[in-house]
Amino acid sequence: MQYNYSFEAASLLFMLLIFVHFMVVWQFPTEKTRVFRALLIVCIGESAFNILSSIGLANAGVVPQIVNEILAFVFFSFEGLSSLMIYKYMVVISERVLLLFSGWSVSSGQRSKFRIFLYHAVFCIESCYVDRKAEDH
Q1: 71-81 burial, b if ≥16 CB within 10 A, otherwise e?
Q2: What distance in Å separates the CA atoms of residue 125 and residue 38, rounded to the nearest whole number?
Q3: Are 33 and 18 in contact (CB under 8 A)?
Q4: Cα–Cα distance between 127 and 21 in angstroms, integer?
């Protein structure tokens, strides 16, 4: 089976360019920028290990099995960590949105309800976009 790494390599290149740009112009070390930087590092690691593990599996006759298992384990670890980092980034962003309403008295229960609504809205919008893109192809 022939693997096509070009899209994954292109996404890795773009993430590296974004990371370099982000580190050059990073001015305000807020929680939002720290979490975004960590998310970007995790996504770069996930993409790199996805490419490496795919190459290792494609050449399973040459690459030792333990190396393939380690590469796959690291890739799946980064994949799980990226989901947690996306959640953390959404929490940080929603806190920023709630600060816009700082004149209102917002209880922690209202914050939790607002976060759940915000996450649900983002995922619904994203899933509609992904479904439309899938229908186009």
Answers
A1: bbebbeebeeb
A2: 25
A3: no
A4: 29
Give this prediction's pTM.
0.69
Residues 35 and 86: beta-carbon distance below 8 Å: no
Tokens of 113: 């309800």
pLDDT tens by residue, 64-107: 999 999 999 999 999 888 888 888 888 887 776 666 555 555 56
- Please write the tens of the pLDDT for every residue from 128-137: 555 454 455 5
Give the C-alpha separation, 16 to 111, whole Å. Answer: 34
Distance in angstroms (rounded) separating the CA atoms of residues 58 and 68: 10
CA distances from 85 to 22, 42, 58, 90 (A): 17, 8, 29, 9
The dihedrals phi and psi of 103, each to the nearest 5 degrees, come to: -70, -25
